[in-house]
Design brief:
The N and C termini lie far apart (155 Å). Strands 4-3-2-1-6-5 form a six-stranded antiparallel beta sheet. It is rod-shaped. It has a domain of 116 residues: PH-domain like. By secondary structure, it is an alpha+beta fold.
Length: 217
Amino acid sequence: MTSKIPILPKKDPEMLHYMEKKLGGVKVQSQKQFLDHDRKVLRFYCEFQSRPFIITYFLADDTVEVLEVHTQNDGYDSFTKLLARRKLPETNDVKQPGQAFIGDNYLTCNEIMPDSEINCFGHLLKILGVDEYTQAYYAKTYSRNFPLGGHYPPLPRDRVSQDVPPHTNLMGGERDSLGYIKRLVPHRPKVDEFKALDNDKKILRFTARFNTRVPED
């Protein structure tokens, strides 16, 4: 006699997913993404109209933050952020009533390419480089080679020696003239307290006459 091999019923993946979710064994995709990529950040160094920016991409929830990079005396207001942390829509076109709203599709990390531009509400930010973690992440996940790079502050200008002009003795003392050189609104010169206390109520008197023979003088 030959024994029959029992045929096992095929598993229904949808039913299996339903039962696991009913028993609390299935994680929501957004929750799984948050747990897998919590505190993992991609950093892109970009440029727009010769101005440096840093794009920070949070893998936990696909949000983006755009920071402005300022240097000393760069001539721009020191705003810290061009865009606060939020999801970046692929387009910012205003649709007609009844059509799709702004930002139906949002930027994800798999859409970012080397030497590409990221549209941040009309600001086309050109990617110049990334940090080491971002380079390793794209090379391992998407086989894309992003160049390493960053923003380097400009070199300080050469110090110029300040030449003090000689005092002309026409008005005030030398200390008064130096006050106008060092400040736009000079401070009042400090009085030598020891000299004032030592010579208090001491007065020198002199008699003089014109040293001339011209009567008109």
